Amino acid sequence: MRKLIHQFIQLMVVISLVRPSPLAAQTREISSWYLHMTPMGNEVWRIGALFGAILVGIGAGKLLKYLLAASSERLEAKHHRYSAVALSSLSRVATLVMALIGLRVGVRFLHMVPQVETMINSVISILATIIVAWAAYVLVDVLDAMMSMLAERTESKLDDMLHPLVRTSARATVVVLALVQIATILSNKPMTSVIAGLGVGGLAVGLAAQDMVKNFFGSLMIFSDHPFEMGDYVEAGGHKGNVEIVGFRSTRLRTPDGHLVTIPNGNLANMVVNNISQRPFLKRVFDLGLTYDMSPQKVELAMEIVKTILRDHPGQSEDRPPLVNFTEFTDSSLNIQVTYWHFPVDWPQFRALNDDVNMQILRRFSEAGIEFAFPTHTVHLVNGTSDLP
């Protein structure tokens, strides 16, 4: 490149000597400036070569990014999911990689003193570390896609809980390794020394962040005990909701009101967790109060009506038949207690069953002339006055 520039300038000088003119004079001035101008100890053409190499690298990176993105779309159309995600992730760093290569090539054109050359090489090494770390960071999407596919193929929801944790752990590992490598470059010390220094600093940070460590071990206890799965409806610490996210630090519940409740895992590991979704059935217990003027025959009829209504009801299990019993004499009624179960746990079907049972009891009791009791007080009068004080 330098040879071509020199030949062009020499040609312009020859032309200016053959045909003197104002333009020829300007050409001689430009050639003199070029030959003698040395910013930072380098000729202009060297500086131009540096920026030219960077621009060429950026252009090549844009082209490579387009080719990778197009290939990713074709693979996605052919259902090659992992390869498509890998190429899509690499397309995000293609421009940076090629620009760094252009910078590396362009720097070779410069004349530098050893100190400056060492500093620039360190900067390039740091940039290379950052770009490689960014490439590894985005390639975690491939692992994410693999775990998503695995979670879709299994019925267990444990994969859904581990999925975000593995993704976060992998990316955190990449960031930590990148920081260690950058520290190694800047300190010009072996990586073992840097890691040892980070270990001492990590001890100090660990003592200052005891709650974070507590929450981390709490998350490990949650995964080992497995008290709930993603999507389960649980009650913990006075809060009820569906498990939405289980992280290293906290677990988030979505309440029926739509609120997002965040509970630190260190506290959650010590709480009594009531997993409502894991119960095998839904149970209903209610009382029917009959008036005291009801004859024994009508009480028996009322019990038989309820038994008939609940006989072979939807969701019934042979192991748990309905129970209808005359349980007690209350202050204002003869009490019949009704208990029945519904299998499996399906709230819409259970509510529909309750609605049907209530309507049938109301209708058939009305047809049989059976009256429900309600709280009453009887006042006895003696000689026209109340016996109450």
Low-confidence stretches: 13-21
Quote the average pLDDT.
79
Q: What is the SS-derived class?
A: alpha+beta
Helix content: 55-70%
Order of helices and strands: HHHHHHHHHEEEEHEEHEEHEE
Quick one: biggest sheet?
5 strands, antiparallel
Shape: elongated
Radius of gyration: 40 Å
CATH topology of the domain at 280-368: Alpha-Beta Plaits
Q: Tell me the quaternary state.
A: single chain
- Biggest sheet strand order reads 4-3-2-1-5
Q: What's the helix count? A: 12
Report the CATH C-level class of the domain at 280-368.
Answer: Alpha Beta
What amount of the residues lies in strands? 5-15%
Strand tally is 10
Terminal CA distance: 119 Å
Structure summary:
With 389 residues, this protein is of the alpha+beta class. The protein has helices spanning 2-18, 22-36, 44-77, 81-91, 94-107, 114-153, 158-187, 191-208, 210-225, 265-268, 296-310, 347-368; strands spanning 233-236, 239-246, 250-254, 260-264, 274-275, 282-290, 323-329, 334-342, 381-382, 385-386.
Main traits of this protein?
SH3 type barrels; alpha+beta; single chain; 12 helices; Alpha-Beta Plaits
What does the model show?
This protein is of the alpha+beta class and 389 residues long. Among the domains are: 1-35, no CATH class; 210-277, SH3 type barrels (Roll); 280-368, Alpha-Beta Plaits, CATH 3.30.70. The protein is built from twelve helices and ten strands. A five-stranded antiparallel sheet has the order 4-3-2-1-5. β3 and β4 (260-264) form a beta hairpin. The model is unreliable at 13-21 (pLDDT under 50).
